[in-house]
C-alpha cells in the first residue's frame, strides 16, 4: 500500500481525494463526470489486483467532481475470482493513505422486491454477510474486531437522499445480502433471503465495507438493480443481463452521486 500511495502521489501531483468511489459491473459511466481526469491502469500500480471480469475496466481515475477531489476505482476484484475476501485491501488502504475520508461503493444487484424493478437504484442501509467470509481473518491484532453497527454512515445516507430528491430520481433503500458467487442464487436461496430480511442480493461490496471501516473510512453504498432474483420471474439469470441493464440504473446513480458530492464541496 505504501508503494502504491507514493507512486500515485507522484503521478497525481499531490491530489488528496476526499472521496474514493468503487464502481461495479457496467457502472463505468461515472468516470465521464470526472474533470481533469488522470487514468492509470491497475496493472501499473504496485499491489493493485487486476480483475478478469468483463464489465470491469480495471483502472484508477483521479480528478474532481464538482470541484471536489476524488479517486474512482473503475472495477473491483471479487471474492469469487480467487476465493479471497481480502482482494481489495490494497486499493482501499491506498485510498486511506492518500487522504480519503469516505468510500462510496456501487454494485449491480438482483432485486427481491417487486417495487425495485430492473433499472432502479437502491441505497444500501445495512447488509447480511451470508457468505460468512471476512477480509479481516488473519489480522494479528485487536484491530480486527471491527464494529459494524453503523457501517453505513447516516449523514452520507441523508445527503444521497437529498440529492435524489433534488434530481427527482426515485431512490429505494434496503438490505443487501452478499452471496459468494460466481454462480447465481437458486429460487430457494432467494426465498430464504427474503425471509431473512434482504431486499437485494449480490456478489461484492460487503468485504469492502468491512475493510473501509477497518481503515476508518466512512461508507455509503448503492446498488443498481439489474434483474429480479431467481424464481421471481421464471427466467434464467445471466451476466449478460447484468451488463445490459447496469448502464440504465447506472446513469441515475451517477447523477445522484455527482450531485451529492458537489453539494458537499
TrEMBL record:
Pfam families reported in the protein's UniProt record: PNP_UDP_1
InterPro entries, sorted: Nucleoside_phosphorylase_d, Nucleoside_phosphorylase_sf, PUNP, Purine_phosphorylase
This enzyme's EC code(s): 2.4.2.1
UniProt keyword terms in alphabetical order: Glycosyltransferase, Transferase
Pathway, per record: Purine metabolism; purine nucleoside salvage
GO molecular function: purine-nucleoside phosphorylase activity
Taxonomic superkingdom: Bacteria
Keyword Manganese: no
Domain named Nucleoside phosphorylase: residues: 18-261
Description of how the protein assembles with itself and partners: Homotrimer.
Family membership: Belongs to the PNP/MTAP phosphorylase family.
Biological role: The purine nucleoside phosphorylases catalyze the phosphorolytic breakdown of the N-glycosidic bond in the beta-(deoxy)ribonucleoside molecules, with the formation of the corresponding free purine bases and pentose-1-phosphate.
Name used for this protein in its record: Purine nucleoside phosphorylase
Species, as recorded: Pararhizobium capsulatum DSM 1112
Amino acid at each position: 500500500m505504501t508503494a502504491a500511495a507514493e507512486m500515485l502521489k507522484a503521478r497525481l501531483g499531490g491530489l488528496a481525494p476526499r472521496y474514493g468511489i468503487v464502481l461495479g459491473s457496467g457502472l463505468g459511466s461515472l468516470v465521464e463526470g470526472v474533470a481533469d481526469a488522470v487514468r492509470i491502469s491497475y496493472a501499473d500500480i504496485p499491489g493493485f489486483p487486476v480483475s478478469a471480469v468483463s464489465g470491469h475496466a480495471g483502472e484508477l481515475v483521479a480528478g474532481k467532481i464538482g470541484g471536489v477531489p476524488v479517486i474512482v476505482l473503475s472495477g473491483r476484484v471479487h471474492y469469487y475470482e480467487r476465493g479471497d475476501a481480502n482482494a481489495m485491501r490494497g486499493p482501499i488502504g491506498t485510498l486511506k493513505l492518500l487522504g480519503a475520508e469516505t468510500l462510496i461503493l456501487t454494485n449491480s444487484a438482483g432485486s427481491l422486491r417487486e417495487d425495485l424493478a430492473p433499472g432502479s437504484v437502491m441505497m444500501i442501509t445495512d447488509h447480511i454477510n451470508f457468505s460468512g467470509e471476512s477480509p479481516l481473518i488473519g489480522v494479528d491484532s485487536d484491530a480486527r474486531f471491527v464494529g459494524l453497527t453503523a457501517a453505513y454512515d447516516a449523514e452520507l445516507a441523508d445527503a444521497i437522499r437529498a440529492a435524489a430528491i433534488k434530481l427527482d430520481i426515485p431512490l429505494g433503500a434496503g438490505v443487501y445480502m452478499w452471496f459468494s458467487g460466481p454462480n447465481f442464487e437458486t429460487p430457494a436461496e432467494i426465498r430464504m433471503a427474503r425471509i431473512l430480511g434482504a431486499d437485494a442480493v449480490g456478489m461484492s461490496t460487503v468485504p469492502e465495507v468491512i475493510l473501509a471501516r477497518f481503515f476508518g473510512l466512512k461508507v455509503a453504498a448503492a446498488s443498481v438493480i439489474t434483474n429480479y432474483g431467481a424464481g421471481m420471474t421464471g427466467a434464467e439469470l445471466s451476466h449478460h443481463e447484468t451488463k445490459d441493464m447496469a448502464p440504465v440504473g447506472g446513469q441515475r446513480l451517477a447523477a445522484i452521486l455527482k450531485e451529492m458530492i458537489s453539494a458537499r464541496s
